[in-house]
User: Which sequence fits this backbone?
C-alpha cells in the first residue's frame, strides 16, 4: 500500500514538474507591434519604386500594444486611431492572410513580418507595397501630440 502511495506521489510530482516546465510566458506574440520607418514603396499603375530619399520626406508608423496607431510624416502626426490584426481574404493567396485594419477604414496585408522588417501591401490590383524597418523607440514628449497608452 505504501509503495502504491509513493508511486502515485512521484507520478503526480513528475506530471506537475512537466506542466510547469512546459509553460511559457508570451510577452509579445506580435512582431508587428513597434516603431517602423518607411524604407520604400512600390506599385501603383506605373509600378513606380520610391525610396525614403526619393520621396523627400520621412514616414513612420507606430503600432502600440493597446491597439492604437500613429502615422507620422516628418515627425508630424498625419493620422492616428485604432488598429486590429485579423485574418482575411486577400488577392494574393487563396487561404486567409493576416491583415492590419485601421480605424480610418484602410487595411493592409501583412506580406512579411519579423523583428526587423515589415512588408505590407494594399489589397487590390495596382496597389502599393510598403517596406518598413524597425526603428529606435520614438520619444513621445517630442511629438506635437501625445498618444495615450
Assistant:
Amino acid at each position: 500500500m505504501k509503495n502504491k502511495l509513493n508511486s502515485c506521489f512521484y507520478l503526480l510530482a513528475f506530471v506537475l514538474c512537466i506542466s510547469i516546465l512546459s509553460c511559457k510566458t508570451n510577452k509579445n506574440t506580435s512582431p508587428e507591434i513597434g516603431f517602423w520607418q518607411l524604407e520604400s514603396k512600390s506599385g501603383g499603375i506605373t509600378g513606380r519604386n520610391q525610396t525614403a530619399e526619393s520621396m523627400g520626406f520621412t514616414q513612420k508608423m507606430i503600432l502600440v500594444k493597446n491597439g492604437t496607431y500613429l502615422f507620422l510624416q516628418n515627425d508630424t502626426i498625419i493620422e492616428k486611431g485604432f488598429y486590429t490584426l485579423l485574418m482575411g481574404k486577400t488577392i494574393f493567396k487563396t487561404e486567409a492572410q493576416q491583415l492590419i485594419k485601421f480605424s480610418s477604414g484602410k487595411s493592409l496585408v501583412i506580406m512579411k513580418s519579423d523583428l526587423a522588417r515589415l512588408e505590407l501591401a494594399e489589397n487590390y490590383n495596382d496597389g502599393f507595397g510598403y517596406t518598413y524597418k524597425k526603428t529606435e523607440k520614438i520619444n513621445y514628449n517630442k511629438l506635437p501630440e501625445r498618444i495615450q497608452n
Q: What stands out?
A: Residues 19-28 have pLDDT under 50 and may be disordered. Strands lie at 34-43, 48-51, 59-63, 68-73, 76-88, 97-102, 107-113, 117-122, 128-134. The longest helix spans residues 2-22.
